[in-house]
């Protein structure tokens, strides 16, 4: 009994730590097509500079894209300030198209005003 | 924001609080960190309580283990609920469409009901149980169920990001 109980406790802890340890990663990449990255260049139409992710609306070749960027703290750390991710700026975004929302792009890196910033 | 979401969810998301969590640089990550730290404390307390019900630490009477540990579990649960609410409200209209969130909510309900049942129906058996005597089978079964439910809750929490 005692041996089994300890084994159960060990298993519980191993699973709990695994579950909690990766929580800060926040979002997975499972539902983005990582095998076929594309580059979108266009005009920023709306900019939501907020958590959990900065989200831009970009008009490129007549198509409207939702571009998902990094959390605010990382954007600030890397110099991707709100003034740079602003409406009216031209942005080039390299990333992965969502397999669920066909007009959503998860950006790996973006270039604005000649400045390239990594999102991961 | 999804315009097709129920009005209550849109109201939550567009509330001053939801706005504050999204606009602040640190509120959202702080809620995220608080949630995982509270989970660690909660899981630890739950594991100790369930282990005692299952027969571990048999030299100590179960009531002596459960009483103080339950206080830790309740405090940690309050922190989990508060931080979880912040994470939910910030993107209520999106996350409410996530099936895993609702599975998690149901499992939390079952976990709480199970814990309440142990507290109410098992109170006498636990209080009267001396060291080294196994607790009734129903309580041991409830302890196993508790471990399974809270592990599943933690797993669902992580899986919300992938569905």
Count of the separate structural domains of chain A = 2
Helix count of chain B equals 8
Return the string of H and E elements of chain B.
Answer: HHHHHHHH
How much helix, percentage-wise, in residues of chain A?
Answer: 10-25%
Number of E-state strands of chain B: 0
Report mean pLDDT of chain B, rounded to a whole number.
Answer: 96
- Tally of alpha and pi helices of chain A: 2
Please describe what this structure looks like:
The complex is a heterodimer of chains A (120) and B (163). Mean pLDDT of chain A is 85; it is low at 19-28. Chain A has a five-stranded mixed barrel. Chain A has two domains: 1-30; 38-118, Nucleic acid-binding proteins (OB fold (Dihydrolipoamide Acetyltransferase, E2P), Beta Barrel), CATH 2.40.50.140. With 120 residues, chain A is an alpha+beta fold. Chain A has two helices and six strands, in the order αβββαβββ. The model of chain B has no long low-confidence stretch (mean pLDDT 96). Chain B is 79% helix and 0% strand. In chain B, α6 (99-121) runs antiparallel to α8 (137-159). Chain B has helices at residues 7-14, 16-23, 27-54, 62-90, 92-95, 99-121, 123-128, 137-159. Chain B is an all-alpha fold. The chains are: A alpha+beta (120), B mainly alpha (163).
Topology overview:
The complex is a heterodimer of chains A (120) and B (163).
Chain A: H1 2-21, E1 38-48, E2 55-60, E3 63-68, H2 72-77, E4 90-97, E5 104-112, E6 115-118
Chain B: H1 7-14, H2 16-23, H3 27-54, H4 62-90, H5 92-95, H6 99-121, H7 123-128, H8 137-159
Helix pairs in contact in B: 2-4, 3-4, 3-8, 6-8
């Amino acid at each position: 009994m005692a041996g089994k109980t300890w084994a159960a406790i060990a298993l519980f802890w191993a699973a709990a730590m695994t579950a909690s340890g990766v929580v800060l990663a926040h979002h997975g990449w499972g539902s983005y097509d990582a095998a076929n990255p594309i580059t979108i260049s266009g005009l920023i139409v709306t900019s939501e500079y907020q958590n959990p992710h900065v989200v831009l609306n970009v008009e490129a070749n007549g198509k409207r894209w939702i571009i998902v960027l990094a959390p605010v703290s990382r954007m600030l750390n890397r110099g991707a300030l709100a003034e740079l991710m602003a409406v009216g700026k031209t942005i080039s975004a390299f990333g992965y198209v969502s397999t669920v929302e066909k007009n959503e792009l998860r950006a790996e890196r973006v270039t604005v005003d000649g400045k390239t910033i990594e999102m991961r | 924001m999804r315009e097709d979401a129920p009005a209550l969810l849109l109201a939550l998301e567009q509330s001053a609080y939801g706005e504050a969590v999204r606009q602040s640089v640190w509120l959202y990550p702080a809620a995220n960190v608080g949630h995982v730290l509270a989970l660690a404390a909660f899981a630890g307390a739950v594991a100790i309580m369930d282990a005692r019900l299952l027969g571990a630490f048999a030299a100590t009477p179960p009531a002596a283990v459960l009483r103080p540990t339950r206080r830790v579990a309740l405090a940690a649960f309050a922190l989990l609920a508060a931080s979880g609410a912040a994470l939910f409200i910030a993107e209520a209209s999106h996350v409410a469409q996530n099936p895993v969130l609702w599975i998690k909510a149901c499992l939390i309900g079952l976990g709480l009901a199970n814990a309440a049942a142990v507290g109410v129906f098992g109170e006498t058996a636990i209080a009267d149980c001396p060291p080294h005597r196994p607790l009734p089978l129903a309580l041991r079964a409830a302890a196993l169920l508790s471990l399974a439910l809270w592990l599943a809750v933690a797993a669902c929490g992580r899986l919300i990001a992938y569905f």
